[in-house]
């Protein structure tokens, strides 16, 4: 577990063994079974999560009961309802487990302390968040462009393993297309 | 000019006069006239910009020549082609001025030095980027929800001044709706 997380951090920063051990103290391990919820819409939340193993989904249910998938998260991804986290309001997303998961959980308070104690971790989070920002901007572009085929191809190229681990109906929901359109796209 | 920027930074961090002066040394002032380009798609870029005054637009032109507006930026906003900036590839966005602008320009090298010299600036950028990430996530949600009316209302509530300064056709493009749909929405 620690090896996975250290490797993830060291893609951006360099750490001594002691530093890594001290950083790890700010996290707690959380294990959940398939179908369990990490975050439920409507609840107050105070944590974000790094995925050691397993697969999760973040989703939003609108007033008509239609469910939109905001994000999948598997090994080496971070997930939370960041809007709720930074505005300290109730979660609007559900985050549930599509497989059994092992997570490293970080509270807002611990993140603050961690960044104060290790400016290098502030750097890590800034770089990681910037990458996340760019990823979302690309997704907006693809949605504005209304180009389902390019969305499908990009997702497949970036995360082929998602297509083996996630039911097709959920992939279709993430891409914002119907199940039929997805079938057509996957046959091109 | 300096007052505007200092106030912006001090929404998140606290600075002494000396610190602020040293931080400011990493930026250069850039003035451009309406219609001029700050960034042109296809070019290599190395800067991001803080808007002191004026209004800009970031847009993407797809293969069919259709233009999508990615972002507007006015006073107190940051703008660049962040994908190009972090991956050091050619810009895919055009950024042009809808009004005369005064910008503070920050190169990648200066940002790196600034964050090393002032960890508090690393903190500032992390917090700012997280807020940007959350904003984009909300926009994705609204696009997936295909709810033009809520997109219109949110934009109007957040930035009423945009509707006075930006031509209606550009607002429609930003919202991903036709000019006719926008007229209908603005009459609701």
TrEMBL record, chains A, B:
InterPro entries associated with the record: cNMP-bd_dom (IPR000595), cNMP-bd_dom_sf (IPR018490), RmlC-like_jellyroll (IPR014710)
Organism whose genome encodes this protein: Mucilaginibacter polytrichastri
**A family per Pfam:** cNMP_binding
Q: Domain Cyclic nucleotide-binding spans what residues?
A: 30-117
Q: Which CDD domains match?
A: CAP_ED
Q: SUPFAM superfamilies, per this entry?
A: cAMP-binding domain-like
According to UniProt, the name of this protein is Cyclic nucleotide-binding domain-containing protein
């Amino acid at each position: 577990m620690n090896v996975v997380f250290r490797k993830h951090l060291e893609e951006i920063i360099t750490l001594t063994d002691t530093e890594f051990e001290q950083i790890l103290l700010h996290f707690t391990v959380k294990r959940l079974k398939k179908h369990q919820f990490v975050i439920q819409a409507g609840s107050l939340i105070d944590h974000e999560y790094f995925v050691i193993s397993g697969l999760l989904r973040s989703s939003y249910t609108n007033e008509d009961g239609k469910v939109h998938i905001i994000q999948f998260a598997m090994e080496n991804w971070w997930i939370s309802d960041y809007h709720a986290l930074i505005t300290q309001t109730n979660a609007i997303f559900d985050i549930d487990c599509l497989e059994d998961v092992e997570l490293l959980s970080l509270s807002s308070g611990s993140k603050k302390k961690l960044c104060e104690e290790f400016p290098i971790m502030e750097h890590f989070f800034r770089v990681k968040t910037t990458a996340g920002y760019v990823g979302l901007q690309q997704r907006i572009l693809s949605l504005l462009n209304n180009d389902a085929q390019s969305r499908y191809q990009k997702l497949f190229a970036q995360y082929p393993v998602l297509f083996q681990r996630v039911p097709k109906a959920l992939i279709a929901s993430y891409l914002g297309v119907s199940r039929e359109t997805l079938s057509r796209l996957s046959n091109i």
